[in-house]
Amino acid sequence: MNLSKINFYSENEFILEDEARYASWLENVIISEEMTLEEISYIFCDDEYLLKINIEYLDHDTYTDIITFDYSAGKILQGEIYISTERVHENSETFNVKFDDELRRVLSHGILHLSGYKDKTEEEAALMRSKEEEKMKLFHVEQS
Q1: Which of 80, 81, 82, 89 has its CA 20 to 30 A from that of 114?
Q2: In terms of DSSP bridges, do strands 66-70 and 6-10 run parallel, antiparallel, or are they unpaired?
Q3: Rounded CA gap, 35 and 97, in Å?
Q4: Burial of 103 (0-12, 13-18, 19+ CB in 10 A)
Q5: Pairing mode, strands 66-70 and 76-84
Q6: DSSP class per residue in 4-33
Q7: Cα(63)–Cα(140) distance, integer angstroms
């Protein structure tokens, strides 16, 4: 019996279809980075929910699509990843991509942050984007 250590919660109306497939894919993303999964919680929410977290914990008064709280130790990943599904939807329209594709980009983005990747500089952001593309392709590989 495979009990995933990746959990999905929703603070809004969003429901992630086929959680098991997403969990399996995210576990493969972690393995591909030679990391070990302890436990990761994804919390889907709306813009206002995430804005409050951004203000309270990061002192940023801006909307964002994702906030990652990293509790990892070395190569053992543990964290909470908050995702605004409203922002993901808006970004998917802005970038003219499917919502599911943009969601996978953001889901993998959180794992990459937990794996030590940053995105503050242009170089870091370019590497992050390339890694996101690489990880998104793993989703279409048959999951075992």
Answers
A1: 89
A2: unpaired
A3: 29
A4: buried
A5: antiparallel
A6: -SEEEEESSS---S-HHHHHHHHHHHHHHT
A7: 30
Query: Hey, is 6 helix, strand or coil?
Result: strand
Q: Could you list the pLDDT tens digit for every one of the 144 residues in the chain?
A: 446 799 999 999 999 999 999 999 999 999 999 999 999 999 999 999 999 999 999 999 999 999 999 999 999 999 999 999 999 999 999 999 999 999 999 999 999 999 999 999 999 999 999 999 999 999 987 544
Amino acid at 61: D
Distance of alpha carbon 93 from its chain centroid, rounded?
Answer: 19
| pTM tops 0.85, yes or no | yes
Closest CA to 37 of 87, 71, 88, 86: 71
Q: Is 34 helix (H, G, I), strand (E, B) or coil?
A: coil
The burial of 93, by beta-carbon neighbours within 10 Å (0-12 exposed, 13-18 middle, 19 or more buried), is given as exposed
128 Cβ contact list (under 8 Å, min separation 6): 109, 112, 117, 118, 119
Q: What is the full DSSP assignment across 88-123? A: HHHHHHHTT--HHHHHHHHHHHHHHHHTT---SSHH
